Amino acid sequence: xxxxxxxxxxxxxxxxxxxxxxxxxxxxxxxxxxxxxxxxxxxxxxxxxxxxxxxxxxxxxxxxxxxxxxxxxxxxxxxxxxxxxxxxxxxxxxxxxxxxxxxxxxxxxxxxxxxxxxxxxxxxxxxxxxxxxxxxxxxxxxxxxxxxxxxxxxxxxxxxxxxxxxxxxxxxxxxxxxxxxxxxxxxxxxxxxxxxxxxxxxxxxxxxxxxxxxxxxxxxxxxxxxxxxxxxxxxxxxxxxxxxxxxxxxxxxxxxxxxxxxxxxxxxxxxxxxxxxxxxxxxxxxxxxxxxxxxxxxxxxxxxxxxxxxxxxxxxxxxxxxxxxxxxxxxxxxxxxxxxxxxxxxxxxxxxxxxxxxxxxxxxxxxxxxxxxxxxxxxxxxxxxxxxxxxxxxxxxxxxxxxxxxxxxxxxxxxxxxxxxxxxxxxxxxxxxxxxxxxxxxxxxxxxxxxxxxxxxxxxxxxxxxxxxxxxxxxxxxxxxxxxxxxxxxxxxxxxxxxxxxxxxxxxxxxxxxxxxxxxxxxxxxxxxxxxxxxxxxxxx
Length: 541
Description:
Mean pLDDT: 92
Organism: Mucilaginibacter gossypiicola
Number of strands: 43
Largest sheet: 8 strands, mixed
InterPro entries: Delta_60_rpt, DUF5008, Ig-like_fold, Quinoprotein_ADH-like_sf
Pfam family, one: DUF5122
Strand content: 35-45%
Low-confidence stretches: 1-44
Number of helices: 1
Helix content: under 10%
Structural class: mainly beta
Shape: elongated
Protein name: Delta-60 repeat domain-containing protein
Strand order of the largest sheet: 1-3-6-5-4-7-8-2
C-alpha cells in the first residue's frame, strides 16, 4: 500500500508539472497568434499584372536608333506611368498594345538586360544585343580558355602564340596533356600539343621573351620546371619549350657510386628569391624587374647532387643577367658595398623598355634608389634613376599598368591615382615620351570603381578595363573604347558587361580580315559572355 501511495503521489506531481508547461505554451501561443493576426504584407504595393512573356524581341538585336518590339502583358493600363530601359538606359516608347511595346534603342546603349519600371516596381525582360563595331570573333577557337590568369603572350616566328600565366588547363586538354602555366596555340586559338614543356612550371609565370637564338626566357614565381629543381624565378627554354639543361660534375661523397658525381641541372644558372614581374632582352642581356631582394647563383664545383652551394647577392627588384644567368655587376650594383641599390619602397607592378634600353617602371612605390619617385620611375641603361624624366610629382596613388605604343609614340598608365604631375587624372593618363602629360587626352569621370589596364592602339583609340560601371555618366561595365581625346568612341561601346582585368593586347585581324585584338588577362566575362581569360574581338572600321 505504501508503494502504491508513493507511486500515485509521484505520478500526480509529474502530471502537475506537465500541466504547468502546457499552460505556459498555451499563453505563448496566444501571444504569437495575436501578433500574427497583423498582415505581414500590410502597406505593400499591389501586383500590377505586368509580365514579359519570355519571348525574344523583334528583332533580337539592333543598333542605336532601331525600333524593337518586346512581348509584354499588362503594360497598356500604365501607359502614362512607366519607363523602358535597355541595360539601364531609358529608351523612347513609340508604340504600345495590350501585348507588346515598341521602343527606339537609345544612343550609347550597350548589350544587356531590359527592364520596365512602373509605379516604383521593376519588371525584368530578355537580354537585348546592341549591334556595333565591337564583337567577339566567333571564329577564334579558344572558347573555354584557361582555368587561370594569362599574364603574358608572345608571338612566335611561325605565327603561333606562347602563353604563360597561372593556369593548369586549356580547353579541357588536361589532364591528358600536362598544361602547367605555359602553352602554345595557333593564331586562331587552337591548342598545339607539340610544345615539349613536360610538366611545366610549378608556379605562376609572369613573363616570356625570346632570345636571339630562338630560345625563350620565362620568369615568375617558380622553383622547378618539368620537375627539374634548382630554378629561382627565371629559366631558359629551348625552341621546342623543353628546359635547357646541362650535365655537370659535382662532389661525390660516395666514390663507390660513380653516378653521384654527375648531375643534370638548368643550364641557366642564375635567379632571384622572389617574383620576376617583367623581363626584357636587349643586346644579348636579360633585364629582370620584380619583387625580390636577392640574386642567387649556384656554385656547382662545391656542391653535391643533394646539396647545392649558393652565392647570394643582395639585389632589390632589378638586375641584369647574361644569357647563362650570370649577374651583370655593371648594372644597378654598388661595388663598394657589393650589393644592389635600394630599389623601390613598394612593389613594381609593370614596366616597359624603350628602344634605347631605358626602362620605365610603375607600381606602389614613392621612392626608388633613395630618390623621390611617386609610383613611376625611368632608369638609365646602367640602372640608375634618370633625373631627366619629366614625370613631375608623378602619381598620387598606385599605378597598375603601363603600355607603350611605338606607332603613336605615347605611353599610357592605369591605376587608382587621382592626379599625375599635379594635374587631375582619375586613373588613366596619356604621357609623351619624356614623361610629361599629353593634354590632348582628357580622361573622364568613372563611377563604381577604378581602371586596372589601359592600352593605346595604333589608330589612336584606347582600350580600358576595370571594375567601373559608368564613364561620364554613360553605362560602361568594366570595358570601353575611347577616342584619342578621351571621349567614348561612337559605335565601339556596344558591348555588355566585362569582368576582370586585361594584361595584354595584341593587334591582329579576324578570320574575315577585319581589324581585331586578342585580349588576355584574368577575366571570365566579355560582352555578357562567359570566357576563359582570352578572347579575340573584332573592331570594325
